[in-house]
Amino acid sequence: MLLSFLLFNCLQATTLFGLLKTARLLRLVRVTRKLDRYSEYGIAVVVLLTCLFTLVAHWLACIWHGIGYFERANEFGWIKELSRQLNEVNHSSNSTTPSLSTRYITALYFTLSSITSVGFGNVSPNTDAEKIFSVCVMIIGGEMISSICFGCCLGLVHPLINCLIRRITWE
């Protein structure tokens, strides 16, 4: 997550050129091919899926932050709401926007709680664009959780069950 935070700080100015640079992330495909030989080890698969989960959460957090930044003029956007909450905690009357690190951590917190379907509700979508994105995050999260939990775990347990079946049939 620290790497995601550093990447987010480096990509503050979202330009077309900056977005094209992110295409270099496709090099990760080559890395996964090299790691394919370790896929027979269950822990390696779990670590890779956790890294993938973190990467998707980072991308979704960046999109969530972009939506909030785009709608910063709207009085009910999540960044304005976060600013009001922080000003109440700090007993401050000036409405300054939170720092970039605070906004990113809040965006990552929101996306992770939405992906995992925990959804505490202290950061919530208020505008139509935020609500549409939240629905998409929930769908992506449901797919990710079901594929990781059920698909991967059953894939890890399947060889053990086959081994037990072979032992029972040989006895």
Question: Could you explain how this protein is built, in words?
Answer:
The protein has 171 residues and is mostly helical. 71% of the residues lie in helices and 0% in strands. The chain has seven helices and no strands. It has helices spanning 2-10, 16-21, 28-34, 42-70, 78-89, 100-115, 128-170. Helix 4 (42-70) packs across helix 6 (100-115). The longest helix has 43 residues, at 128-170. The chain is elongated. The relative contact order is 0.11.
Q: Which terms would index this structure?
A:
single chain, 171 residues, mainly alpha, 7 helices, elongated, disordered N terminus
Brief summary of the model shown:
Helices cover 71% and strands 0% of the residues. It is mainly alpha-helical and 171 residues long.
Query: Count of helical segments?
Result: 7
Taken in chain order, the helices and strands follow as HHHHHHH
Total beta-strand segments: 0
Radius of gyration: 21 Å
Main sheet summary: none
Q: What is the helix fraction of residues, given as a range?
A: over 70%
- Distance N to C terminus: 50 Å
Mean pLDDT: 75
Write the layout of secondary structure elements.
Layout (H helix, E strand, L loop, with lengths): L1 H9 L5 H6 L6 H7 L7 H29 L7 H12 L10 H16 L12 H43 L1
Helix pairs in contact: 4-6, 4-7
